[in-house]
Design brief:
Blueprint (H helix, E strand, L loop, with lengths): L1 H4 L1 H10 L13 H14 L1 E2 L12 E6 L7 H6 L3 E2 L2 E8 L10 E4 L7 H7 L6 E4 L11 E6 L2 E6 L1 H6 L3 E2 L1 H5 L2 E2 L6
Parallel strand pairs: 2-4, 2-5, 5-6, 6-7, 8-10
Antiparallel strand pairs: 1-9, 3-4, 7-8
Helix pairs in contact: 2-3
């Protein structure tokens, strides 16, 4: 349990020191690391003011489709706050109201629905994240991928801007910037 307190610290080190190798001494699981990434994406993202109806509204992190995290999100992120807002974790099926999230992790089970998901989110300020191959090139915002024993991320700036989100320059500097594929 004490180990889980160090996950956000580890992720901050990873974000600000790209040469830190993940999963060496702590042996964190892939989805513990990805959960920590979601938390830090929330810390380095600015949403339009109208996204929240009140000062005490939760920041909602959602998982769409078959949940690869299990209870890891609650262990890593549960009880934390961002900018004074508590974090709420919700799981959705495709038919759910996932447009109300602030961050939406799209699981691989939804790969055949990506175009429809992006269509539903077209007017929403939702940061989309996934480990579906080439997610950012397909119209998502952040793609998490393994490289050299680390989790890296690629960002589709165009989609982030369309959603009226602002990402920290520090976050952008650590990412691979990608462009959307033309159909």
């Amino acid at each position: 349990m004490k180990l889980l307190r160090f996950i956000p610290l580890l992720l901050c080190l990873m974000i600000f020191r790209s040469d830190v190798i993940v999963a060496q001494p702590l042996s964190l699981s892939e989805y513990e690391i990805k959960a920590a990434f979601l938390y830090n994406f929330a810390k380095f993202t600015e949403w339009p003011p109208e996204t929240f109806s009140g000062e005490n509204d939760s920041l909602v992190i959602g998982v769409l489709g078959r949940d690869p995290f299990g209870d890891v999100l609650e262990k890593v992120i549960g009880g934390k706050t961002i900018g004074g807002r508590p974090i709420a974790i919700h799981r959705f099926r495709y038919s759910g109201f996932f447009e109300r999230c602030h961050i939406l992790f799209v699981s691989e089970s939804e790969i055949s629905r990506l175009r429809d998901i992006f269509q539903r989110l077209q007017k929403a300020s939702v940061l989309t994240v996934s480990d579906i191959p080439e997610f950012a090139q397909k119209g998502g915002m952040i793609y998490l991928y393994p490289k050299e024993n680390k989790i890296r991320f690629a960002i589709n700036i165009s989609q982030v801007e369309k959603a009226r989100l602002k990402l920290s320059a520090k976050l952008l500097n650590l990412s691979q910037i990608v462009k959307e594929e033309r159909n």
